[in-house]
Structure formats: structure tokens, C-alpha cells
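Changelog-linked ticket: iron/sulfur cluster example.
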Amino acid sequence: MSKKIFLVDVNRCNGCHNCQIACKDEHCGTSWLPYAAEQPDTGQFWCKVEQTVHGSVPKVNMTYMPLIGAQTEGLREYAPEVLMEREDGLVVIDPEKAKGREDIAEKFEGVYWNAELNIPQGCTGCAHLLDDGWTVPRCVDACAVGGLRFGDEADFADELAKAEKLDPKSNVYYLNLPKRWVAGQAIDPMADEVIIGAKVTMQEEGNEAAEVLTTTTDEFGDFWFRQVEGKKYHLWFDAEGYVEREIADVDATEADANIGRVGLYKMVPLG
Ligand code: SF4
Ligand code: SF4
């Protein structure tokens, strides 16, 4: 049997939180023993939608993605004795075998300590549903836009070849993880107006062999280079009738770079 995996597409996830709520609905107030004891009403998020703000005003965007922490081979390596034996590769902490193992909750992100029941708890892959004939877990079933999918690793081979992981041992894969962006606005300070259709060229600073990226400013004079690597960049601005301008050392190493307004000045006719 092929191993079961989760696949998140960050470009499709709209942050609706349906997956997070569905997990709560499935596991709070209900025990699915022997697979899972009841999840506490508060303090645990076996599926947690993380929201990240990128950039600074007025160039801001948000990304959302579900985190499912307990589905990691790291847990199987660290404490195989507390897991249920399954052929589908799901990592399921056995509530009976894991009694007293607070160390597991301390070691793994997304595994929580239930002090009342004296057990560590996390995503079970909704193994109780799969064994009852469901093809996907509750959280995946609740996602209407294909942001969170689930299935046999072999069936996702093409997409997994392009996917990344937040934890190298995780069985949760991500498509389109956010990278950096570089943005700004071209303006004509003398005319006090934006410049539409200016060509903006960008290349990694000091690396002439690097790919040259180009775009043009939109009707607001804005430009964006999205999904670029976290590096320093050199930018060139070129608009008809204006003097070319360069900006060096635009730093997108640690965060997205909004370089703000870039003033271009009209060429003065000779004579
Ligand atoms: S993965 Fe799907 S259900 Fe979860 S927040 Fe994103 S869009 Fe909503
Ligand atoms: S698979 Fe089930 S237990 Fe795991 S996060 Fe989704 S709903 Fe929760």
C-alpha cells in the first residue's frame, strides 16, 4: 500500500479556516478510541491555519496555510513504541501506549500535552474515518478549493516533485510556499503623477550570470516581482522620454522589499 500524505497548495488556500474548524468539530467532545481520545476544547490545534503578513503598507499581501504537525516520520523514529501499527503510513499516537509521554509533546511542534488525560495528542489523519470507508479526513473534506488534499503518495508523484516540506521528515507537502517579493512605484515627481508602462528590470546584485527579470508598471505606476529568492537585487527603470535610473542593493534577504516611490525625470532636449 502506498503511503498516505497531505498536500497543501498555498496559492489555493484562502484562509477560510474550514479545515481547522472541521478538525475541532470531529475531535472535540468526541472520543474515537482506540484511535484518539477527545481533544480539549481549547489549547490544541491538530490542524492550524497560519496567516502571514508580507511587506509593508501600502504594498502588503497575506498568505495562509494549514499546519499539520504530528504527521512526521520524526515521531516514528523517536517513539515508535507509542504509535498504532498501520499499513497506510499515517502517524497515529495510540492514547493507551502513549500515557505519561509528555516528552513527545515537548519535542514535536503540533503535538500537544493533554494534562487531564495524561497523554500527548496530535493529528491522527482521521484514521478512524479512513478505516470506516472515508477516502479523505474531515479537514480535507471541508476544503472546497483544493487547498488541502490527501491521498496515496504515488498518486501525487508529479506534484510532489515540485513540492517542499516545512520539516524534512514530515508527510505534509507544500506547493507554492511563499518566497520574497520586490515591489515599488514609478513616479514623475515634477508632474506629480505615476508613470504607467515603465520597464523595470531586476537581477541579483553582483551576479551577472543570474536570471534577468523584467516587468512593467501598471496603471497605478506599481510594479511587483513575486516569488523571488531571498537575495539582494539591482533594479533598472526605463520609461520613454525619461532618464534611466538604477537602484542598487535592494535587500530582500530577510523580508519582502517595498522600495516605495522611485522618481524618474524627463530628458531635457539638447539645444
Ligand atoms: S486549506 Fe482549504 S479549508 Fe483550510 S484554510 Fe485553506 S482554503 Fe480553507
Ligand atoms: S486529518 Fe483529522 S485529525 Fe488530522 S488535522 Fe485533519 S481533521 Fe484533524
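Closing comment: Example verified and attached. The mean pLDDT is 96. The pocket of iron/sulfur cluster (ligand 2) is lined by residues 22-23, 26, 46-47, 68, 123-126, 137-139 (CB under 6 Å).
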